[in-house]
Design a protein that fits this description.
globular; Fic-like fold; two-stranded antiparallel sheet; 349 residues; mainly alpha; Arc Repressor Mutant, subunit A; single chain; 2 domains; two-stranded antiparallel ribbon
Length: 349
């Protein structure tokens, strides 16, 4: 049985890339606290956008899907789930809301993790919610020829409860001792959680929910305003690559979690940069047309109406649509495609 002695991380030397990530995120965190006090209206809109994106993206990674319209209705609690996928989407929405609203009162302990997992499957006909796995699970992959092979074998079911207890206990001990920066400790603990793979199903979604929880509990609230899950989904191949690299020799306690640490810190840093960009656009005292124009000219390449709406959280959907039409009519934006495939590009090339 592994010991998960996180105190040893305090003696490890980290390369310049990790140290740079940590320093930049600290700076962004300090500025975010200023925005929380100065721009509450813009932030409320960002919260609603991030909730929908996080729910969609984290489930999408696992192949759980519904339409955009249904997704928004489910997240707004304006409909009931029609199928298995929508039931699991509703469960994720509920757990994410619980973390948003009560993170201060959700310690990183096994019984709380089990309760969050229970709620993840609250609407599902599956009877696995709230219980650790009862059979061995493996992480497999498929090669270029379509052949499946074992990528990683997690801990056995009988080892799982003790392993999760040790991860939680050692994490909290290191947090209390302030011996290692939480920005390094959190990715390591989440990586260990994924290597244990404690549930029959829902491990990936739980890992992302727990990442949000642990960041919130350490004062990093960025996931409330910018969806970390959405950024992971857009970089899914890199996520799995970093995870695979960090899993080598894990059972022997000789793994190097650096690739996964760098990946997750890169996601967090990108989210903070997006946050400041959106607040900057929203905070300017300018007309709706100029606000949407500034958002469009902050983008490179293709952009969608949804992306422009994200950049203008204080502007109503109908107003964004009207501004886009004016920019197209004036020739400042070029419209491509039609219907759901519509996208825009700048006309200043």
């Amino acid at each position: 049985m592994r010991e998960f002695n996180y105190a040893e991380l305090a003696n490890k030397s980290w390369d310049s890339e990790i140290l740079s990530y940590v320093a930049q995120i600290h700076e962004f965190k300090g500025r975010q606290e200023f925005y929380l006090k100065q721009k509450p209206a813009e932030l409320d809109r960002l919260v609603e956008i991030a909730k929908v994106q996080s729910t969609e993206a984290s489930n999408e990674i696992e192949g759980i899907r519904t339409t955009n319209t249904r997704l928004k209705q489910l997240c707004a609690d304006k409909t009931t789930p029609k199928n298995r996928d929508e039931k699991e989407i509703m469960g994720y929405r509920d757990v994410l809301n619980t973390i948003h609203e009560s993170y201060e009162y959700i310690p990183f302990k096994s019984n709380y993790i089990l309760q969050l997992h229970r709620d993840l499957y609250k609407y599902s006909e599956k009877s696995i919610g709230g219980s650790f796995k009862n059979s061995q699970n493996i992480i497999s992959a498929t090669d270029a020829n379509g052949n499946s092979y074992v990528l990683f074998t997690p801990m056995a079911p009988y080892e799982t409860p003790e392993a999760i207890d040790k991860i939680c206990e050692n994490f909290e001990r290191s947090i209390d001792a302030q011996s290692i920066d939480p920005l390094i400790l959190i990715p390591v603990a989440i990586h260990d959680f994924l290597c244990v793979h404690p549930f029959n199903d829902g491990n990936g979604r739980m890992s992302r929910l727990l990442t949000t929880l642990l960041l919130y509990r350490s004062g990093y609230m960025i996931g409330k305003y910018i969806s970390l899950e959405s950024k992971i989904a857009k970089n899914k191949a890199l996520y799995y690559e970093a995870l695979e690299q960090s899993q080598a020799n894990w059972h022997e306690g000789k793994e190097d979690a650096t690739p996964f640490i760098k990946y997750l810190l890169g996601i967090i840093l990108a989210a903070y940069r997006d946050f400041e960009e959106r607040i900057d656009i929203a905070g300017d005292k300018r007309s709706v047309l100029d606000t949407v124009r500034k958002a469009a000219y902050s983008k490179i390449g293709k952009m969608t109406k949804a992306e422009l709406m994200e950049l203008c959280p204080s502007v109503a959907k109908s107003s964004v649509e009207a501004a886009i039409k004016k920019l197209v009519d004036s020739g400042e934006l070029l419209k491509h495609g039609s219907g759901r495939a519509t996208f825009y590009t700048r006309n200043d090339i």
